Amino acid sequence: MWDKYNFITPAKVRVLLVPINDCTPSNFQRYLHLIQTNVGEVRLLDIRENNKLHYFNSVTSPQGRIFPEFITSSIDNELIFLHDFDPFRKTFIVLGVGPYGQDPSTALVELKKKYNTAIVHNVILFDTPEDKLNEQVPEVFFHNGTTSHLTALETIFCDISGNFLEKLDAYASAYANITLRSPVSITDSHVLTKTINQAQKRLSSGSTSFKVTFNNSTTTSTTTPGSTLEKSKTHLKHLGRQRKLMGSFYLLAGKYHDAFQNFIESLTSLKKSDDFLWLASALEGVAVSIVLMQFIGTAYQLPNQTMNPVLQVSKIRGSIDTATVRKTSIDSNVSSPRNSINGSNGFGFNALTSAIPDFNNLPVQELLKIITSRVVYYFSMSTNDIENMVPDIVYVESILRRIKLLIGIHFSSSMEDIVKGTITPTPNGSFPKIEIIDEIDKIFSLQITDLNIVDQCRIYSALATMYADLGLMRKNAFILRLLISAILPHLSSGELPAQSIKEVLENVFVLYDICDEPESFSEAARFHGQSNWTSLQIQLLRLALKVAENLNDQELLLKLCTLLLTRYTHCLPTDDQIKLKNKVDSALKSNGGLSIPYWDPFLVRKVKFVNSKPRGNLIPMKETLNSNNSSQPFFDPYTKKESDKAFVPTLVKDDISQLKVTLQNPFAFEVEIHEITIVSEGAQIETIKSLIRPLESITSKPSSTMPNGNIVNNKLRGHPGKKSSSTTSVVHQGVSHTTSTNSASTFVLAPRSMESVMLSFKAISTGQVKITGFDVSIGNCQTQFFHIIDEEKFDHTIKLQKVNQKSKQTTSVLDKVVTNLQSQSVLGRVMTSSLSLSIIPPQPSLTLLEISASNGCLMLLEGEKHNVTVTLANHSAQSINYLTFSFWDSNIEFLNKKLTNPNLTAAEVHELEWKLLVFKPFRILNKDVIGETINPGGVVELQCELTSRKFMNESKIILEYAHKSDTEQSFMKNLNIPLNVSVMPSIDVVGCEMLPAISISDNVPHSIGQALKCVKNVDDYCLLVLDLRNSWGERLECNLKYNEFELSEPMQAGKTQRFIIPIKRIEVDITKTIPSLRNKQFIKNYNISDEEEKHMKKLFWLRNSILENLVGSWKLGRRHGVIDLRPIRLTTKMANILSYENIQVHNTVLTDDDLQVDSIGKSYNLSTDQFYVLKTTIINHSKKPINGIVRQLPFPIHNTPTKSSSSRPQLSIDKKMLVNGTLQNKFPEIAPGDQLVLETSFVIIQNGEFEWGTVVDLFSDKIICREQLYITAN
User: Fold this and answer.
1) Residues 6+ away with beta carbon under 8 Å from 38
2) At residue 416, does pLDDT exceed 50?
3) Residues 909, 761: one domain?
């Protein structure tokens, strides 16, 4: 369309190419492409000399060019009335193009007969054999059809151009004696008359204030008779029109200087005769001649005397920018070929004020702008004369060619670019874009819609192209939409080619950014969801739907419906979606050969494997063995972490398994699913279509109330595995299952819903299989493959970058969306997933025959040991040669939950770990059965012992078995045997205490005396006092054993009984850390001090030593069990009594004569006023020598004073006791294993009760005497 409105179009020769000799369309297109790409122009220098020609001998203008305009269709009959006015509109040459044939003369005759208005009829035969290329046939040319003979092709067109000049010479001679009439007198042209009259002022090229005077003659109507004046004007008009017509012929013949001279000569005559229509055409011919002479470098001279009355520059332009005037050419490197008669270098002030301005000094672009503006002006002036009115198409096309020239000046850097229509990427700034836009806007003041539809299409297309070249893509899109609206009423009549209309639609789709692919790319989806063009795009697509309906093009209609439903569902109301669905159904029903893909490529949202049988997972035995040996003794932060392998479900060949498939329907209408087939890679699986059954669905509210969180078209809704938002509700009535005559598995997805479907399948071969998607047959759509959608891709980063113009899309927008849906091209938009399965050969099956527990339920006392017999059978054809067991009870979860508390101390963690790992509530007594092979049909009996404990409500025996093979991979199966246990309390520890054995007197109870019998040295022992309670309703026989000491006594129901057990003092190593039974790395707790940590270790190791040696059990008839002694807790006082100190301090009171004073334990009864000696013995049991200070601390014991003596002051120790020496003394170094004896003399001078303690201060520790002395003085 662009070449038709090229400014040099009046100089182009129309050449009609017609296929001959049964030329196929593909060959014709090949020939056409070969001609168009290699024959752009023909130089007159290359045309043979013909001196017989009167006008158009090529020798006289060797620099000239003939510009052929190749067309494949002609509508000359509609514009035949313009051929005399604009000869370039006539088809002068008709070329028959086709493959080589035997008799080309026949085709030549047919061409001359069919296209009799053309003056040249020639034939070019391609693909000619080499031996026939030199044949000489008049008006017939031969070519072999390859690019290697391009020179021959150019020679052919030089000969054709010579024929054209010869025929044109005769054609032009025929007009010598013909009176030329204006085209308006031949056809009616009243359409734009009123419009042009109203727009005259806006279309004038200069000021609207001056009054145009066309006649500069001094002759007036009062002095000249009317007949003479009219005759003179008629003669001038005839002369001017003849010159103008000859100028047009010279343009076509490439003799631009002769054309220029004829146009110049016609201006004066046409101006004086007020023939504005022909004057405007002649003036346009001057501009075209100037452009072409600039192009070929021919000198020319503008006659100022002639041009000034026509252009009226002195009145139109008040001033010219000096900087602009100094520009002599568009191309600064090429000087103007014009010969100036004025020595001035510019069109300065003198020139402006002179009577006749010099047009030769104007820059070419300024001159062309002035001339073309006057062309438009004179065309508008012609509307005042009904007989010589400008035709509509001539007027509009003249304006378009002027705009094309202005755009060429704006972008081009040389005259060659303007001639060839080349647009450079960057403008040269010689002509403002805003002025070009103003010129284009003038087109819209005309009633273009009243033109014939073909002309409307050309004009709108030209305007759209102009806007595109100026970078105004929105205006371009707007014009193309107007074009579509204009052609819409004419589509049903078949006036316009459907293929061209489709191409226009495709261009508009690209301009409206409908070419984006949100179903395939996340970036396009994000911009598509945030675009404010959505409403405009939908309006355009609705207009395209009307176009498809008027064309009755069902295929185009289906593609448009697919595009709307795929990309714009989120913007379409419910009624529109249902209408589109009905259009699709109707089109498919009426055209059986058409098919479309389903509109939502994200149909399958989630797939989950469901175990169809209550059996455990099948696990390869190698993985099981590796998992048992993978524990590490400590945590290494620098160890390379191994990536967790995804769990692969294992299923057995020929077993029926199930998949839970979640499907979505984002549309406002129901979607009928006819068939679903699993698509997989690897081992073969078979879909059992008769077992497909839908589950519940999640139905969303209408789109008007749906959240806008989903970009694009709400195709990707919230993940079905996540919690649904408040805008969704779970319904069971939203899914209907229908029984179809075609398929028993047909069901319907409710509008805007997500449904889970149970899909059954069977493995028919072994190996690895990966389910990649499903083939789904939906409604009237074609069966297609759907990926399993995992999640949508999001690019949360916002990047600012320069947006370049999109490259031209080679694939149709409509075809692309269909292709994307058919090929499931969604990987750029979403992340897909797959489901891997491992299919193994048939495996053995172990089943439970009998268990000795009634209904699998037991009632046990806490700590009771109970025997259970389990009978198993192998009901398969495979033998079982591998069997292991494990045990689980509900207490495990309780302990694991408590272990997650981060605030637990090391001692508390060890206690929980002991109950979890060390305590064994279950064991098999006949372990030899485990290693035996269970043959098919064989039975095995397991003897088990169960030990109950607290919180053991539920339990189960877990048996793992397999058929181990050296040749094939073995898989392990498991059998769970549940046991419901009710645990009742038996014997509980309710209290404990620790007493030193040295403080016991002779008169002791029997139980204490029995404990002291096992004590050899009272200083090395202490007594553990345990209070046990029988919480059961019957008497229990209780037995306690600590090393060699054993105690057995009956306990009455509901009673608490005390037991005393002698325990040898324990030497504690506080440097040992508290171990972790789970092999966890030791982490130091910095929340406690070192002293607190030492104390915690001391308590832990003392308690641990007791629990390792102390065992308790109970018995009730045949029932027996163990006593849980773990509740024993030690206090600091108990720990001090139990622990064996490395430094020991003992005190004894002697008389002054070194005689032992009688005492009861550590209580002494002394007399006043008598000297005594306190003997202190310090024993070093450590491994290093010690020294320090010993402090004696006597102090009186004050009883609570009575009211009568409350005012009497209490006396200090100094007034009650006298000590010989000091109470604080440094003692010498004591070697390891040695002892030191210190004596302190004292006398009591007042009656009373006293307590005497001793403290040994070492440099690293403080030792307090364990045994305090109690003194009573009388």
Assistant:
1) 147, 150, 153, 154
2) yes
3) no
